[in-house]
Amino acid sequence: MQPRDLSDHVAYEAGRGIEEVARELGRDPSEFVKLASNENPHGPSPAAAVAIRETASSVSSYPKAAHADLTSAVADRWDVTDEQVWLANGGDGAIDYLHRAVIEPGDTVLVPSPGFAYYGMSSRYHHGDVREYELSKDDDFAQNAETVLEAYNGDRLVFVTSPHNPTGSTMPLAEVERLADETDDETLVVVDEAYGEFADRDSAIALLEGRDGFDARDDVAVLRTFSKAYGLAGVRLGYAVVPDEWADAYARVNTPFAASELACRAGLAAIDDEEHVERTVETARDARAYMREQIDSHVWESEGNFALVDVGDAAAVAEEMQERGIIVRDCSSFGLPGCIRITCGTEEETEQAVATLNDVLDDLGLETDEADDPDAEVADQ
After folding, report:
1. Residues 304 and 195 placed together within one structural domain of the fold
2. Angle of the 117-125 helix axis to the 90-102 helix axis, nearest 10
3. Residue from 379, 366, 372, 341 nearest 35 by CA
4. Residue 250, φ and ψ in degrees, nearest 5
5. Which residue, 228, 245, 270, sits at the end of a domain?
């Protein structure tokens, strides 16, 4: 007995953890700073941490009430109906739900390249085919409707990541609207806003609800997560906001109790912890600016809690930085073998990462001519 043919599937490659690296190198975990997974440097919302402790004694019960309460709180946050909020086990769980609700075997899904690998992975799990549109390094990974439409061919789902991982670029809402206008009636445009809190832009939820001068739409869905700005990556909590017409679909595609009791209670506490989110966003904004100003290589502008850096040889740089105690993301798995991604850390962590990177670039002879001009264009390497 064997599983079905999984030869077209690849395992998700996550950023390396401190314990994993420390074991591999035979060193103490305290020697390392991890800036590889876009986690919150301030940890979870303090209110959420209290809620998790207080909820621990009740995890023997299914989270029916907590699930309903959090759904209502998220709906209030975005001024949508409860039925439009699909809670999930992380943002990737919400991606799975949308595939379950939309994809028939053989349908195609259009995803960005570079981009989040799980879009394609989920499509293949649900017997869909994956097609790609390219965000160009030469164009600073700019996102607009035309780039997507040039590759579009009647695909059932079209994914837009805004802010985009790993580049930090965004797509203006007017461009999302144009994309939805110029794709087929049966195409759903999914805007992944996992890093939305860090961007100085309105959410695409405005397109669903007909706000801010936009017409209300039934062909756009938005993904959000508690993993980043709220610091709850470890409890796995995300959600989709879908068109009002989709009200009946959630009950037919979700797993029983889509988010755990701990996750729901943590989310209920975190969603009102504005102070923690504001602090987190301010830290990311300062860290992005510092990296662009101080790194001796090209750093792309970012509206996420990370920065993409052109280093020439990502594998060599990431390995050497790891040896020196800073864990960053080698972006070869994104199809960017010349780039690393650095998560925005605390002020101390960011300064340490920048100093280490500059030393590594110097020691490896990988400086670029654009070191003194963060706005200069960098050729492919």
Report:
1. no
2. 40
3. 341
4. -60, -45
5. 270
The tokens describing 147, both together, are 């780039």
Identify the CA nearest to 144 among candidates 167, 160, 166: 160
* Whole-number Å distance between alpha carbons of 287 and 349: 9
What residue type is 82 in one-letter code? D
Read off the pLDDT of each residue in 168-191 and give the average, rounded to a whole number. 97
Tell me: the pLDDT tens digits for 44-94? 999 999 999 999 998 998 888 999 999 999 999 999 999 999 999 999 999
pLDDT at 214 over 90: no
Q: Are residues 250 and 283 in the same domain?
A: no
Domain that holds residue 338: 18-44+274-364
Please indicate, yes or no, if residue 376 is contained in any of the structural domains.
no
Residue-level pLDDT at 258: 85
pLDDT at 223: 98
The predicted pLDDT at position 376 comes to 36
CATH code for position 31: 3.90.1150.10
Q: What is the pLDDT of residue 367?
A: 52
**Residue 14 pLDDT grade (very low, low, confident, very high; cuts 50, 70, 90):** confident
Q: Are residues 298 and 284 in the same domain?
A: yes
What would the pLDDT profile of 221-271 be if each residue is shown by its tens digit? Answer: 999 999 999 999 999 999 999 999 888 899 899 888 889 999 999 999 999
Residues 279 and 139 in one domain: no
Residues 38 and 59 in one domain: no
Percent of the chain with pLDDT over 90: 80
Contact criterion met (CB below 8 Å) for 319 and 356: no
